[in-house]
Amino acid sequence: MKSVASFTAAVALLSGTTNAFWRMPCRERIGLMRLDPIVDPGTASSHGHTLHGGSNLQEETTYEMLRDSNCTSCQFEDDKSAYWTPSLHFIHENGKTEVVEQIGGMLAYYLLLGKDIKAFPKGFRMLAGDSRLRNFTGAVPDPPLAAWTEEDLTQFSLGQKSLGFNCLHYKKPAEGARYRHFLPTKDYMDENCADGIRAEIFFPSCWNGKDVDSDNHKDHMAYPNMIDGGVCPEGFDTRLPSLFYETIWNTQAFKDFPGQFVWSNGDPTGYGYHADFINGWDIDTLQSAVETCTDPSGKTEDCPVFSGALLSEPEMMQCKIESQPKILSNDDCAGPADGLCGNVPVQYGPAYAAALKPGDHAEPTVKPTLASSAAPVPTLSYASARSKGATDAYGGGISVYNVEETPAMPTLTSTSVSTSTSVEAEAETPAVTAAALADDAISSDDGIVSTSTYTSEGIVYEVAIKEIAVTVTVEAKRRRHAHMHRRDREHGLLGRH
What is the pLDDT of residues 19-45, one digit of tens each? Predict the structure, then answer.
């Protein structure tokens, strides 16, 4: 019981989201190669990727092809989806380049945020991130959610904030997911990240309800205004599962070696980190999982939809791509080699990077250049979450918070959604309709004095107290749940397990 009779207030519903999710381990990559049938169909990709999921991934890949895969590197044997991100490499002082060891494959989280969530349709594909970005336009670190401005709520800004590079040190409390939107410098990782770096990226989850793809593979999707929840922009009212990728890289293997880390697209900053997804689920099975996998543990073993069809780690690790494209026969993306596969130059920024060219390339002739001046990224000190993030044996697991309070939502205005991906462009604030506000959240106009939460029938409700001309008493319970959280009031961190 919490009395608020000491001030005049009214109660308004902010949001209701279930705490349901599952995380899909994909314990081994099916390939490390220049393959990207979304951005570079029919030819060699401009840069290398670490690929996971269904084995029938080719230069041009359809939904039906993925469904015909002989195997999958993911735990549920009927998830034939394709998941990929850039790979991380180390450039030695002499220019020799080699891939960094990837630990535990990939974790793909399916977070069920919002209401009436629909399965990804047949032929659905999407891209998160921008390979050419080399800077960050927001405040460092992120301000608390309650302090977000209209600029923080643009699609461009939300996309930048969807990235995270979690410094792993298992003898310390875990950092919050997406606390740091850039790859730390090598000196910082040598000193602080004893168990490597976990790269993280959130995909948009608001769909226009009609297009399974778009010209830039982004415009059919949009982020909700809290990235991992909140309000969808007008015209993107269909909620899909919220995808969140994690990959862990053993950067400590290069401790005290002179050189630096760089992503396979030639990005040493991390700002250009990105990820791709092609749906390979049986649609009815995925919809059943969306409606059934409500256990807060997030374990696939705890969902009856997956019962009896889960692969062991050795089975996952045996799955490899069925046929490497001939155009890639001379590639060596693992190294050691004289440069990055695809002959990719290292581009430091902060200017928008030059576009990379797809297609066949000779062995690397562009010797990577190491930065000789100041680091291209800022420094953020190690910042632990309030409680240690629950991890699996490989260190995967979105960090956990025991939330005492939930900050008020930032003020929202009604303008059009921007789909620009250029670093110079100004993205506009996502549109918010009255219906959307009633469904998911309310605008935090002047007069909101506090917020609280309560849980009913598995749904977490957030309540805003707003000054009006009457006095009321509010009954509410503070949520302390090990598997849901909002932003840390001090650091603006967020994560979900």
Answer: 689 999 999 999 999 999 999 999 999
